[in-house]
Structures are given as structure tokens and as C-alpha cells.
Write a structure and sequence with these properties.
The complex is a heterodimer of chains A (403) and B (167).
Chain A (H helix, E strand, L loop, with lengths): L2 H15 L4 H15 L5 H13 L6 H14 L2 H13 L5 H17 L2 H18 L4 H17 L4 H10 L4 H30 L5 H8 L4 H23 L5 H19 L8 H31 L2 H12 L3 H18 L2 H18 L4 H16 L6 H10 L9
Chain B lengths: L1 H35 L7 H23 L15 H37 L11 H4 L1 H22 L11
Helix pairs in contact in B: 1-2, 2-5, 3-5
The chains are: A mainly alpha (403), B mainly alpha (167).
Chain lengths: 403, 167
């Protein structure tokens, strides 16, 4: 291992523990490594590469899906989806748990963000479930886990990040590839939720209380939820039908979410709009600054042939592709425990993708593996943004994870 | 005084980012509209969108620093005693200052100057590419300014016990 890379790793680890923001950690570690390796014009080319890293039309989908998600979160889409899920599943034993999971899946899918799902669905469902005798910790854990399936079910913001980093991966193909694994994970979470509910006797009296969840006739519930669900069809249908690029689809999603939240549902007054948009711009800044610095870092890693070195090491471990794939999976799980999703995708895609391709895994397939693994990390402490968000929404200091 | 500066900067940045976001949505939708309805997509829509994307990203990054919202790992720092956490927080702001000032500010200014000298134009907009890179030093100077502000605020605070690390 050369000196520059040793410096990169050491600085990265040291600064990460000191709670320096990850974007700056990556930037500082890369700059120091570049100096140590004796590159020319480090400051100028670092700044230039940061700008160039963002100069991709596909990346525009990120701010748009963030804005659309924020609009939907504030725009009353969650309650309408909860009503719909309640209509479908509320009558069964453990029904509220299933309603919660299904709504999280739907909302996480539509908004492309697990965080938006936890805060807007959890904000309504967790207190509701607490009142009906479900254990609070169970409710929070369930919401957090179910919300992560939204990262796999399209549209999904991390998939765009992955597609841009991996290059030559079609966003449309990734979106399609995520549908089945996402639904499957969601179904298993629902199954687990029902089993836990039965064993612990949660929600036994749902039969009496279900009328509270759904007060309207069924056709009205469906009718009210339809415009929210239509978004998925717009976005997916538009992309697959060749009408728009994923970026354009995300702009259409913003327009639709705006129309729903501000004009049809009228839950977001125009006065409140600027503050909401500034919040979206801020989230955009967080994600995009990460994208910018990690482009520079992965450029340096590639120049020093680190991905090849890692690939050689992993391929030297065993000639069996299954063993290598499992090893990568375990590493990704561990990474997900300590790192947030976007930085993890940005840092580890360039390192592991060549290995995966080396053992014959399609980049689209690998993207889904990567995201599915990192999703689990969103619910695990110490760095589990979904779990922590769930705790703050559900007013719990500490949580025993039950799934 | 400092909180006033912060308030005004926050308002200004907020206003600019709302306007940029609005224009972005309109520009991209206009691209779709002209392609499907007028059969001929306006040439500048994608280029302008990419230019605005860089601006909103870096301005948003500055807003995130002002609001202390960047992602970090506070697992270890949150277990330190208040005095040590304070030292860690000061160190952290110093590093951000260094990165914002030297890499984004100085390096960014150099690339902007370099592009102005080369006279390279964006093909459809006929605008110098320097305007694209300008977002980086602007964001860098803003981040440096607020890092200095944070450091001054830290050094004046008499009661470190009430202060945690920034998250």
C-alpha cells in the first residue's frame, strides 16, 4: 500500500470519529493524500473536479426527488395512503402493523426517500399504534424497517446516485430491477410484524377500532389515494415508455406533488412554501457536496489503482464467485452499520463494482445488492438515520430493535 | 451583531435557492414540453439546468453548514466529557474552515480565473464556463465566514458544559 493511500485511510478514520461532517472528511483526506502523492496543482484541480463531478444531467433528479418528497411529506399524501392501506389490511389481526408497513412501502416508493416515509407515515401511525396497545419500540422499529423498502421500490434517489457513480448503468433498468426485491422485503417485514403481533397479542381489538381508521366508504378512500399513487405510474411509465428521461420524470414528479400538496389537497399554504423549498435545497446541498467530493476521491483511488488492488485481493481469497459475493455482502452490511447510505454508495461502488463485474454480476444486479444491504444499515445503530428519525417521531429515548 | 449577519445571510441564501429551484423545475419541464409538443427541444434548457444544479448544490451545502445539518458520526464525540467535546468541536470547525478556505475558496478562485483566461464558452448559452465554477469559491468563502463565526462564538461562550458537539 502506498503512502498516499495510508494517509487517506488514517485521516478518514480519525476525522470520522471526531464528528467532522463526512463531506469534509472525504475532502480533507483526499487533498492530503494528493499532496502526499505529489500531484500538481492540487487545489485547482480538486475544485475543478468537484464542479465537474456535478456536471451531469442525471444528477438533477436528486434535488427534484428531494423536493417532491418534501412536498409530499407536508402535503397530506401520507394520511390518504394510510386510509387506503387501512381499507385493504385494517380488518386483520395485527392489522395496524400491516397498514403501517404497507403505507411506509407506498410512501417510501412514491417519495423516493425513506426518511420522508418515516417522518410522515410514522408521525401518524406510531402514535396511533401506541394508543391501540402495540409496544412503542416495536412500532418504531417496524416503521424504520418498512420505510427502507422504499429505497428499493422505484423511484429511488440512491439508485440515481448509484447509476451516476457506476456510469453506463441505466436508471430505468435499476428502477425496474428494484421492484421485486423491494416488494419481497416489504412482504416479509409484514409477515414478521403479523407474527410478532400475534405472539405478543397486539392489536387484538382491531375489529372494534377499525372504523376509526377508515370512516369513509371504500370507493372514496380509493379515489382520494389515487392521485398519490398515480405518481409512481407517471414516473415509471414515463421513463419506461420513453417519454422522459429519469431527470425529466423527477421534474414532473415535483410538478405533480406541488399540484397535489398546494392546490388539490391544500395542505401546504403558499406562505409555507419558501421554507419548505429552502429545506430541500439544504438537503440537496448535503447530498451533492458528498457526491462532489467523493467523485474527486474515487478519481484519486482509480489513479492509484486501488479498485484493482481490492479486486485482486478479493479474487485471490477464493475462486468461488459465491464466496466472493457473500464476502462483499458481509462487508457492505458492516459498512451500512457505520455509514449513511449515500456516502456509502458513493465510496464503495467504485471499489466493489469491478470485483462484482469480475465474477460476472451485472452492474444493475449489483446495485440492488448494494442498496439492499445498506438499507439494513439504516435501521441499525450507531448510524441508523431511519431508526433515529423514528425515535424522534415516536418520542423514544432508546430503542430495542425487534426485527 | 453576528446573529444579525447570520440571519441576513440565511435569508439571502434562502431566497436565491428558492428562485434557483423554481427556475430549475421550469427549465427542465420546458425541455420536455418543447421536445414533445414543438418537436424540437430548446438547446439551452439542459445546459442551463446543469449550471443551476451546480449553484444550488454548493449554495445548499453552505446553508447546510450554517444550519449545522451536514451528516457526521457523533458516536464517539457524544460520549466525551463536555470539555473534550468542546475541543473536538473547535477542531472540527477549524478543519471545515481550512477546507472551505483553501480548497473551495482558493482552489475554486484559481479555476474560475483559469477559465476566464481560457475564454471557453458553454456552447448553447454562450456563457463563460467560469460562471459554472464560480459556485465553488462563493460557497467556500461563505462556509469559511461561518466557520470563523462559529469559532468566535465558541471562544466567547463561558459555559462549555451546556455545549455539545455539533451534529
Amino acid at each position: 500500500m502506498n503512502l498516499g493511500i495510508a494517509i487517506l485511510l488514517a485521516v478518514f478514520a480519525a476525522l470520522l470519529t471526531l464528528n467532522v461532517p463526512i463531506a469534509f472528511v472525504l475532502g480533507i483526506a483526499t487533498v492530503l493524500a494528493a499532496f502526499a502523492l505529489g500531484y500538481d496543482n492540487v487545489l485547482l484541480s480538486f475544485a475543478a473536479d468537484m464542479g465537474n463531478g456535478l456536471d451531469t444531467f442525471a444528477l438533477l433528479a436528486i434535488p427534484f426527488f428531494i423536493l417532491a418528497g418534501d412536498l409530499m411529506g407536508a402535503g397530506g399524501l401520507a394520511t390518504r395512503l394510510i386510509d387506503l392501506a387501512g381499507l385493504l389490511l385494517g380488518r386483520f389481526r395485527g392489522g395496524l402493523a400491516m397498514v403501517n408497513s404497507l403505507t411506509c412501502m407506498l410512501f417510501g416508493s412514491i417519495s423516493g426517500s425513506a426518511a420522508a416515509a418515516v417522518s410522515s407515515v410514522g408521525g401518524t401511525m406510531i402514535p396511533e399504534m401506541n394508543r391501540k396497545g402495540y409496544d412503542r419500540d416495536f412500532n418504531i422499529a417496524l416503521t424504520a424497517s418498512a420505510a427502507t423498502t422504499g429505497m428499493l421500490i422505484p423511484p429511488s434517489n440512491v439508485m440515481i446516485v448509484y447509476a451516476v457513480v457506476a456510469s453506463n448503468v441505466s436508471i430505468g433498468a435499476l428502477f425496474l430491477a428494484g421492484v421485486f426485491p423491494g416488494l419481497l422485503t416489504g412482504l416479509f417485514i409484514m409477515l414478521a410484524a403479523v407474527l410478532v403481533s400475534r405472539r405478543k397479542g397486539y392489536g387484538g381489538d382491531d375489529m372494534v377500532e377499525k372504523t376509526e381508521v377508515v370512516r369513509r366508504p371504500w370507493w372514496q378512500v380509493v379515489w382520494r389515494a389515487l392521485p398519490s399513487l398515480a405518481l409512481v405510474f407517471f414516473v415509471l411509465g414515463g421513463i419506461l415508455g420513453g417519454w422522459f428521461t429519469p431527470t425529466e420524470a423527477s421534474a414532473v414528479a415535483v410538478l405533480w406533488a406541488f399540484l397535489l400538496a398546494v392546490i388539490f389537497y391544500r395542505e401546504v399554504p403558499l406562505r409555507a412554501l419558501p421554507k419548505l423549498v429552502v429545506g430541500s435545497a439544504r438537503t440537496t446541498g448535503i447530498v451533492m457536496l458528498l457526491v462532489a467530493v467523493s467523485t474527486v476521491m474515487s478519481g484519486l483511488l482509480t489513479k492509484e489503482q486501488i479498485p484493482q488492488a481490492v479486486a485482486d485481493a478479493l479474487l485471490g481469497l477464493s475462486s468461488n464467485p459465491w464466496v466472493i459475493l457473500l464476502t462483499i455482502n458481509v462487508i457492505l452490511l458492516a459498512v451500512g452499520v457505520f455509514m449513511d447510505m449515500t456516502p456509502a454508495v458513493l465510496v464503495f461502488t467504485p471499489i466493489f463494482l469491478p470485483v462484482a463485474e469480475g465474477i460476472g454480476i451485472d452492474p444493475v444486479h449489483f446495485g440492488i445488492i448494494l442498496i439492499a444491504n445498506l438499507c439494513i444499515g439504516l435501521c441499525t445503530p450507531p448510524v441508523g438515520s431511519c431508526l433515529f428519525l423514528g425515535c424522534s417521531v415516536g418520542h423514544s429515548g432508546s430503542v430495542n430493535l425487534c426485527l | 451583531m453576528w446573529s444579525r449577519v447570520k440571519h441576513i445571510a440565511r435569508l439571502l441564501l434562502g431566497g436565491i435557492s428558492v428562485a434557483t429551484f423554481g427556475v430549475l423545475v421550469v427549465v427542465v419541464l420546458l425541455g420536455v414540453f418543447t421536445r414533445h409538443v414543438m418537436q424540437d427541444q430548446v438547446r439551452w434548457s439542459e445546459e442551463l439546468a446543469r449550471l443551476l444544479l451546480v449553484w444550488i448544490s454548493f449554495l445548499g451545502g453552505a446553508i447546510a453548514y450554517i444550519d449545522d445539518k451536514h451528516l457526521g458520526v457523533d458516536l464517539f464525540v457524544s460520549r466525551l466529557d463536555p470539555a473534550a467535546a468542546r475541543v473536538a468541536a473547535i477542531f472540527c470547525h477549524l478543519l471545515v474552515l481550512g477546507f472551505g478556505f483553501f480548497v473551495m475558496g482558493v482552489g475554486g478562485t484559481r479555476i474560475v480565473m483559469d477559465r476566464f483566461d481560457s475564454g471557453q464558452l458553454l456552447p448553447a448559452l454562450q456563457l463563460n464556463r467560469a460562471w459554472f465554477y464560480l459556485a465553488i469559491p462563493v460557497s467556500g468563502w461563505l462556509i469559511s465566514l461561518f466557520a470563523v463565526g462559529n469559532l468566535i462564538a465558541f471562544s466567547r461562550r463561558n459555559n462549555p458544559a451546556s455545549e455539545g458537539a455539533p451534529s
